[in-house]
Amino acid sequence: RSSWLLLAPLLTPPVPVITAPPCSLCPEGAHRFQWIRNLVPEFGISSSHVKVLSSPAEFYELLKTQIKTAKQRVVMASLYLGTGLLEQELVDCLEETLEKSLQAKGSSNLRVSILLDYTRGSRGRKNSRTMLIPLLQRFPEQVRVSLFHTPNLRGLLRLLIPERFNETIGLQHIKVYLFDDNVILSGANLSDLYFTNRQDRYVLLQDSPEIADFFTELVDAIGDVSLQLQRDDTVQMMEGMVHPYQGDKMAYCEIANRRVMEVINSARTRQELLHAKTFHSSQEGGSLLSQQGSQASGGLKPEPDTWIYPLIQMKPFGIQIDEMVTETLLTEAERDARIYLTTGYFNLTQAYMDLILGTRAEYRILLASPEVNGFFGAKGVAGAIPAAYVYIEHQFYSEVCYLHQQERVQLQEYSRAGWTFHAKGLWLYLAGSDLPCLTLIGSPNFGYRSVHRDLEAQVAIVTENKALQQQLHQEQEQLYLCSGVVSSSTFEQPNRYVKLWVKLVTPLIKNFF
Fold this sequence. Notes:
With 513 residues, this protein is of the alpha+beta class. The chain contains 16 helices and 21 strands. Residues 168-194 form the PLD phosphodiesterase domain.
């Protein structure tokens, strides 16, 4: 069966006609995933440009270093920016870099674009907005702050749902941080916990201008349909743009779909032309293109051995690329292949659960124990969320046991004193291989929210390079080392007791967290 045929009925507007050969005709190994480029741009890079980070502290130091050395652009998309000392230090780094760029040339080429969620970024008196207003006041021509507001939170619903709870309706959840031509992809937000003791995943793509251009254009597109933060802490839409919650919902979503799909399709066309050029050049001996490349970059560009595919999920706008690619990867995984899947919030969609339980690959699913869940110890109703996740986990485990799949599908709980767990993603090991050839990394949690409510983005990284495969394998091992295997006795522990009201309410609210 051809993987790409499963993906043909995609989205509105129509995706260009798929003309690539079926995956069964593709070479073995990493190239079996070339069908993904029928949907999104394919960026071929050298594995030497990819660095896998392992700790929050490393992530934070890299953010500061990259900000300080940026010359042309800083683009940061996150759920929110925290209000503590570490976050203030990031803002100070931005201010210093902008100031230096002004002093160096009188008029600066450096542009800073920040995309956050409106509801999360506006929570409380001191919030993401108040943190960033000084930058807007000091550098109005260089700094842009966009606050995405879901079109689904409107009218009476918007008036009645209180702060914090309004975030359950839909969010800007993408996390991408880029500095000139360097891109960091992660699931981490810009908050002190994510810089200290909240475990996540982080990958740096160095010297990757095409990928940086793509994510700059994507953030710009979402920014264009978002509220623009003003210097006096008010917000307004760009001139002529439909308002997300005051304007016509269908018209707004159509415009947003068109803007985002333009970015995806234009990048896809550019990369296809580049592939065609490279192919014809190699057919003719390849001398001219290599010479031009070496003149431009000062040296020969290495042949790509790693491919990056950006996967976008924005169901409110009718964009379901990430969901379809993920489902196809799970569907096509062969017998004896191993899939390591991790999520900080175990609440898989029914489609993902059915595929895991009904396909042939081995699964090792890493999730948060109650104590490392981000909601552990929260006040009020939110304090019951870890118990709700325990209940969902127990139901899934019971289904695994009922189907006698315990050997093939194994649950493991991350536990680490003083830490919380927020890592999400997937590593795919082909049958007979000890190293992964594909990973998914980014913002989605594989749950209902990620698929249906929020704006999400991750990348599929496919590599043939053994050293990079080893890096990815070590990343996976390091996370799973802090875990214990779930068994029936796990749910007999006192801290796994779930109150009756939580059991009754969870099925009604599980699509909101």
